[in-house]
Amino acid sequence: MTKTKRRSLFSTIRRWFVRLVLLWLLITISLVLVLRWFNPPTTAFMLQRMYNQEYDAIELQHEWRNISRIAPALAISVIASEDQKFADHWGFDLAAIEQVLEDRQAGKQMRGASTISQQLAKNLYLWPGRSWIRKGLEAYFTAAIEIMIPKQRILELYLNVAEFGDGIYGAEAAAQSIFGISADSLSPHQSALLAARLPAPKKYEIQPASDYMKQRAHWIEQQVKQLGGENYLDGL
């Protein structure tokens, strides 16, 4: 192959690569931007749970509720439990990430540093795991979510897609299936119990709650008070 032909081939490959990258950016940005106004009918995590052969087949429980129909106590409990800097950061809690890296170097037990925005990105578009590819995509989608979607809408999305139990997604389905009430009727203690379950919804039971879950819920209720209670939500 002559130099001219090789240059032509490389030029063609480069043009197609650029086009594919631009197409991918257009598609992914559109997938995020549309969430500013439209509610997602499902998520990547819901689909994986439905077809994951490691678990028994299950009919997913999921009912969308606008944030005005979800108890503020649940919203602030989730923030207190998962992401106390939610109102201030741009998708990433840098101090928490730095602490995780220090703990890793010291050989300590790993703990999560994901923000609500990161968890939303993962739930909507990605898959469980710790690969660098998934982490990179999570960072990309998190940044896009923070740039294009207001904080209150991010919180509304998360409250409606988070897994609160095996096959139970969103505040309304959780409130109905676990407590037999609607999401807007959740008490502060019930909200704290649901938030306490988020790190491992398939593992932790709250009906009845174990001593550990009671302690965890009590800690969350204390953190809610330190954040200023439901008034914190006014700043979003």
Quick overview of this protein structure:
The protein is mainly alpha-helical. The protein has 10 helices and 3 strands.
Q: Would you write up a description of this structure?
A:
The structure is a single chain. This protein folds into two domains: 1-38; 39-235, Penicillin binding protein transpeptidase fold. The longest helix has 31 residues, at 3-33. It is built from ten helices and three strands; from the N terminus they run H-H-E-H-H-H-H-H-E-E-H-H-H. A hairpin with a 2-residue loop joins strand 2 and strand 3. The chain starts with a helix and ends in a 9-residue tail after the last helix. The protein has a three-stranded mixed β-sheet with strand order 1-3-2. Helix 1 packs across helix 6, helix 3 runs parallel beside helix 9 and helix 9 (188-197) crosses helix 10 (211-227). With 236 residues, it is mainly alpha-helical.
Main sheet: which strands, in order across? 1-3-2
Q: What is the makeup of the main sheet? A: 3 strands, mixed
- How many individual helices? 10
Terminal-residue CA separation = 61 Å
**What's the CATH class label of the largest domain?**
Mainly Alpha
Poorly predicted sequence stretches spanning 5 or more consecutive residues: none
Query: How would you describe the shape?
Result: elongated
Instruction: State which percent range the strand residues make up.
Output: under 5%
SSE topology string: HHEHHHHHEEHHH
CATH topology of the largest domain: Penicillin binding protein transpeptidase fold
Q: Which structural class do you get from the secondary structure elements? A: mainly alpha
Number of domains: 2
Overall pLDDT confidence: 90
Number of strands: 3
| CATH architecture field of the largest domain | Orthogonal Bundle
- Radius of gyration (CA) equals 21 Å
CATH superfamily of the largest domain: Biosynthetic peptidoglycan transglycosylase-like
